[in-house]
Amino acid sequence: MLAATTGVTVSTSGCVNRLRDLVTRNNIKQLSLTITTLPADSDRESIRIANELERIFKTVGIDVSFDVRSGIDFLQTVLYDHDFDVCIGRHPGGTDPDFLYQALHSLYADESGWQNPFGFTNLTVDAFLEKQRTAEGADRREAVTDALETIATVQPFVPICIPEEHRMVRSDRFDGWDEGHLATRRGYLGLEPAESVETLRAINTDARPTDNLNPLAISHRGRGTFTELLYDSLATDDPDGDVQPWLAESWEWDGRTADVHLRDWCEFHDGETISATDVEFTYQFLKDMSLGNHEVETPAPRYRGQVEAIETVEVRGPTRLEITVDTSPEVGERAFLVPILPAHVWQERAADPNGPVGVSLAQGTTKAVVTNNVPPIGSGPYQFASRTEGDQLTFERYDSHFTRRAGVDLPEPTVDELTVQITPSSKTAIRAVENDVADVTSTSLESNVIDTIHDSSDSQLLESPSWTFYFLGFNARKAPFSNPRFRRVLARLIDKEWLVEKVFYGNARPVATPVTEQWVPKSLEWQGDDPETPFLGTDGEVNVSAARAAFEAAGFRYDEQERLRVRQ
């Protein structure tokens, strides 16, 4: 019996030791992360930020690799597939803080698109974002402040800076460049051309609009500038960011219901009349691109947060409808900014696509997502004329557009034609304007070329406010990025002030919160450092001892080779 017992003890002790190793050591690996970002020819600033963060992360014992992808592939990977650890890019942001509802609410954590690409879930943040949607005046500002302060604490992503936007324009061919933002329709309307000028010539460093003109295709859409020229919306942002009537002639709020009157005798570019039914269809379609054909709703990957504000749409006549929102009117009016789609074109796109599609949404895919939408049929001030993939786009003025009517006090298309030429870089775009080949660099210029431009009698550098921001995003669907303590320490490894000087040559503003200045609470104002997650170092050099202490305080450990460890 003793011999037998000894044999059992010997035979099992090796298993116990192996189990102990498995639990305590062999599955504890060096923390490794992959930075997904864009190449220099797509976004110079993103890859340079990534290079600096790689250096710092490695200094504190993290193994780092890169996944550098083209503009389309980057958005596909991050927004559609959610296949990343951390990502660095430029977020579209918004002029109103309600954009954070779409960006962070846990309701959207499993969808594809700009709605919560981080997979972030936090009930406290949800509650504050919901509250600011229904509150008004001082109560809304208080709710926004609560949301921003909580977001800064848990760091679902790290806002790095808001870049300045610079574009070069021909002042000898057009006046009025400063009347509207060149990332919106207003920047291209109402311009005063010189005598005999009949074409507005834009030069663009992003070729994606020549391949695809689908307003719902997030992998091909940036700021949506050309969408706004091709499609009308009920409302438009004025230069101060306020919502004003556009396709809608007027609306009146009765509590949370708006009595909306469309302008009479408006048509789509194919001659079909725009009616209240098209507006009703648009909001139904953006909420569910399958129009009830799928077991669950298939919301569009763009405009999700905006249309979510709409509770009901009731057609009251050919050009009249009542729109009820479950938010405050201030937030509800943001839903009036989505493009109005012609029902007779998009109705059949509610069906499932046939064959390989290359796009798979978590919420379901329909023809509406996979179509390139060429030619686009909208009702905007310009209509599609022609394109050469990768090279150029041509739009023609839509002479029947309501902005050209007498008595309508809105900026109108003042030239017969708008051409968009594609060029590979900001430097070549600048040369095109200098050499009188183009009138405007429609994409904002890279920060490293700004100081090389000098105003002349023929051209000038135009600066516009920005609501986009550069960010480090975490995939909270996986450990350790799901851990807010870990995210906070990584946030403290980013010297935002130094990056603004090093990467952006001072042509950006470091931020602790990603909203426009009028919404930044005093507690999150920039005072030379991030007030919530200050940098653990000086002048871009991290204090390794302080960083190690911060990781250890967050529950992480280092090995004898000073490598940060994590359980796999």
From TrEMBL:
Residues 243-560 form the Solute-binding protein family domain. GO terms for biological process: peptide transport. The keyword Secreted does not apply. Keywords: Signal, Transport. One of its GO terms (molecular function) is peptide transmembrane transporter activity. InterPro entries: SBP_5 (IPR039424), SBP_5_dom (IPR000914). The keyword Signal applies. It comes from the Archaea. PANTHER family: OLIGOPEPTIDE-BINDING PROTEIN APPA, PERIPLASMIC BINDING COMPONENT OF ABC TRANSPORTER. Belongs to the bacterial solute-binding protein 5 family. This is ABC transporter substrate-binding protein.
